[in-house]
Please model this.
Amino acid sequence: MTFRSPVSEYEFLLNHIIGFDRVAATERFSEASDDMVSAILNEAGKMCDEVMAPLQRPGDLNPAYLENGVLRTSPGFAEGWNAIAEGGWIGMSAPQEHGGMGLPMTLTSAVNEMMSGACLSLQLAPLMSQGQIEALDHHASDALKELYLPKLISGEWTGTMNLTEPQAGSDVGALSSKAEPNGDGTYAVSGQKIFITWGDNDFAGNICHLVLARLPDGAPGTKGISLFLVPKYLPDENGVPGKANSLKVVSLEHKLGIHGSPTCVMQYDGATGWLVGKEHGGMAAMFTMMNNARLGVGGQGVGVAEAAYQQALAYATERKQGKTPSGTIADHADVRRMLMEMKADVFASRAILLSCAQAIDMAAATQEPECAARAAFLTPIAKAFGTDTGIRVAETGVQVHGGMGFIEETGAAQFCRDVRVTSIYEGTNGIQAMDLVARKMMDGGEMANRLMDEIEEQAERARQVYPNMAEAVWQACESLREATDWLVAQEDLQNRFAGAVPYLRAFARVLGGHFHLMAAMADQGGAREKLARFYVKRMLPEHAGLLQHAQEGIEGVMALTLEELAN
Ligand SMILES: Cc1cc2nc3c(=O)[nH]c(=O)nc-3n(C[C@H](O)[C@H](O)[C@H](O)COP(=O)(O)OP(=O)(O)OC[C@H]3O[C@@H](n4cnc5c(N)ncnc54)[C@H](O)[C@@H]3O)c2cc1C
Model:
């Protein structure tokens, strides 16, 4: 089965659903004309289908490995990286003054999603660089920017991010890596980091690590953390990689999936680093990188869901079993149900992802706090629902294949294994949901309510054409509003946290209904209308149970003691 990038789907979403015309109407993104957007999506799609997709299985079968301390990447990955770099896809949204294209994040998100569907392991490499480019652009000194940004953007060098330590996972503030001033403006960085994605490779001239560490006078917790740029090779006076820095890859993790993506244990022994941002301001700088990566990881989920759906559909329309009109399993009601659910959720999660990216672009172009608040609110939903959709759709894809889904040769199982990590890294989905109900509701639920106003206004407009569908979306939104009010009223945050995951999922379900309804309006009598009816009647109702769960509070969750849990 060959992967085909869903270019026309992005075009539909940009033109009819997420309001990309507003982005293109801004001065900052005025170059993003219809023709340009179409050319970019088609060109990226070609690269994904022809160069990256053929690397998906070889990467799984031939994981990256260490040979005498030298990291060897999967066959074909170096050529794949070169194609990504030469196409300019790493620096699509990077600043033009440093060699980037300055394009909207919405387009980068679409391209990143295609790359993830084609080969998730390789796509992680440009995603890490993109996050680093954004963090340096916002927080680094001009000298660091001038040296590093052009090389990261061109793909000559690659970037990583180093937060996690054995005792500091979700609790980043527990990290123990240290940085001591060298007295010449540089710092000596020491410590061990684990789970570092693309911590090394054999195709870039230098690997640039962004490392969180604590200065001697850094307070405990997240407030005392600083961010350092620590390159594998120290650039000489001409910026050319010279002496090796005091750091190394100790080992590679053996993982459930994404075998082509080396996940490294890194050791820093007084490695020379440069401060990025202010002393003790590391978390602020890192958040720039993490927000970018959160959206990117949401896109990974959607991309793998797309690929798993394509694969399942192709299998279902060929596999003959039982008596059906076409002779294939695709005409069995239960198989068709699975295919419909997969397709409906790929659309919903993609629409949420791109509308979040659109808000990021509007915030960048207009500097309006409202747009930034919208982007911040949608980010955890885009991350968690995108990745949950990836996991569910890939798992359903295995079921569509029957026994062949459990056999590695079909590739259905690889999607399941690869995508599983996406709900874990970049802040687990549980942490995303807590962020949504706590930090993102510090405005008393204002942003949530504004989004819900939009959903209801749109449902009102759709009533004339689709009274039943519009009413269902409107009612679901009202229930969401009630649950939001209940959450906001809970002063004990534990009451919010206990139901945070179901609440986030319910919000995504309602947003999905909203976007499906818009799609139906844009395609009256067409396939999108039929898919919207399926979603609204059969998938949207899930919100009711989720919201009931969300409003039960902490008590029942803690009802069993740890002893009772164990017996
Ligand atoms: C393949 C892979 C690649 C990775 N790449 C990178 C990378 O490039 N750079 C990097 O720095 N890190 C990376 N990570 C690390 C990743 O970000 C962490 O695994 C993740 O943040 C979770 O931390 P943890 O594994 O320590 O789990 P823990 O923090 O121990 O969490 C275990 C469980 O407890 C829950 N939990 C923890 N704290 C709370 C809380 N306060 N409230 C509620 N629930 C909580 C979690 O949601 C989870 O369900 C990677 C991990 C993997 C597996």
